[in-house]
Amino acid sequence: MFRINKLTDYAVVLLVDMARTQRVRAAHDIAAETGVPVPTVAKVMKALVRGGLVRSTRGASGGYVLARPADRIVMADMIEALEGPIAMTACVDHADDGCEREGFCPMAGHWNRVNHAVRRALVGITLADVAGSCHPPVWANRASQGSGTSTGPRDSGGAVYLASE
Amino acid sequence: MFRINKLTDYAVVLLVDMARTQRVRAAHDIAAETGVPVPTVAKVMKALVRGGLVRSTRGASGGYVLARPADRIVMADMIEALEGPIAMTACVDHADDGCEREGFCPMAGHWNRVNHAVRRALVGITLADVAGSCHPPVWANRASQGSGTSTGPRDSGGAVYLASE
DNA sequence: TAGAAATGGGACTGATTTGGTCCCGATTTG
DNA sequence: CAAATCGGGACCAAATCAGTCCCATTTCTA
Ligand code: FES
Ligand code: FES
C-alpha cells in the first residue's frame, strides 16, 4: 500500500549490520559486508548521519557507528531519516505553511488520525527487534568477491512496499 | 515518511463525499461537489470499483454508490485499491515469486513485522471515522462556479505523506 | 427504435521522483 | 605532507505519477 524507498530499504540493511558489529567501520567496509554498492552506502550514510541515527568520524581510520543503542532506534526514525521531513497532505497539522483549503476540506484534518496511527505502529518497532533474532551474517563470507561494483542487490525487484495482508 | 499517491488522497475525498450522500450519483456530479476535476474523478472511480469499494451503475442515470456501509470500509482498503496489490520488499511473505536472497538476507523477513504493524493501524480506521464528525459540505456551494475545468485542488501541494510527529 | 447519458478500459504525454554514480573540498591520522 | 575518510552536492537515466482523452459498451428515456 505504501511504497518505501529502496534507499530506505538499504538503510535498514546497513543499520542492522551496524547493530551487530558495534564498532567504527568505514563505508567501504560496511558495503563489502552487506553487498550494497559503495556509493549507495555513502549516500545512505549521509542521510543517516543527518538524521542523527549514526555518528561519523572523519579522517583516516574514521567511519560510522550507531549513535545510540539499537533498542533506542525505531523504525520511524529510520524511515524519516531517509524519506525526508514528512507531513501527510496539506491537511496535516505539520504543514506549517498552512492549507488554504482547510476551511472547506472534507477531510478536515482527519488524515492526522491516520498519520498518528501509522506512526505509532512504526515507533513500536526498534532496530534491535529487527536485527535481533537473526541468523549470524552467513553471507559475510560472500562479500568482496564478485565483480566488484554491483554484487549485492539489484536483482530482487528491490523497492519496498507495505504488506497487504 | 511514506508518501501516499495524490490519487489516493482524492479517493478518500471522494469516498467521504459519497459516504455523506448515500445515493447513486454520476461522476461529473461528484466532481462538481468535491471540486476534483472530472477526468480525475473518473479515473479514481475506476480503481475504486475494481477494488470493490464502490458499486457502479451504467447507462443513463447511472453513477456510483458505496458498495458497503462506511463503517465497513477501512483505510487499508482505500489505499490498496489505489496503490495496487502490495507486498513489502521481496522480503515479505507475499512476494510469491520468492526472493532469492532470502537465505542470507539480514532482515530475514522482519519487514513482515513492520508491514503487519502498519496494516493493523490502517485497518483500525474506517471511512465512517474519517467522514464522521465533519462539518457539513459548506464548500458544496462553491462548486460548479469557477472556470469550469480545474476549479478544485491543484493549488495545495497535493500529494500525501505520513505524519512525522 | 433512436438518441442521450454514463461507465469501462486503456493509451498517451509531460512532470516529478528515485536510484545510482561521481567529483571535489574538508578533516583527521600518522 | 600524504593517505584515508567523510560531507555535500551535482548530475543523469530510469521509473512513476498525474492528468487528459478517446472510444466501446451499457442502459435509460423520449
Ligand atoms: S486539503 Fe487542506 S485541510 Fe484538507
Ligand atoms: S532481500 Fe529477500 S528476504 Fe530479504
Descriptive notes:
The structure is a homodimer of 165-residue chains. The first copy, chain A, is mainly alpha-helical and 165 residues long. Helix content of chain A is 38%, strand content 7%. Chain A has helices at 6-20, 27-34, 38-50, 75-83, 111-123, 127-131, and strands spanning 3-4, 54-57, 63-66, 160-161. In chain A, the strands form 2 sheets. Chain A has a two-stranded antiparallel ribbon. The longest helix of chain A has 15 residues, at 6-20. Bound molecules: FE2/S2 (inorganic) cluster (2 copies).
Per-chain topology:
The structure is a homodimer of 165-residue chains.
Chain A: E1 3-4, H1 6-20, H2 27-34, H3 38-50, E2 54-57, E3 63-66, H4 75-83, H5 111-123, H6 127-131, E4 160-161
Antiparallel strand pairs in A: 1-4, 2-3
Chain A binds a DNA duplex (30 and 30 nucleotides) through residues 3, 5-7, 26-28, 37, 39-40, 42-43, 45-46, 49-50, 56-64, 150, 158-159.
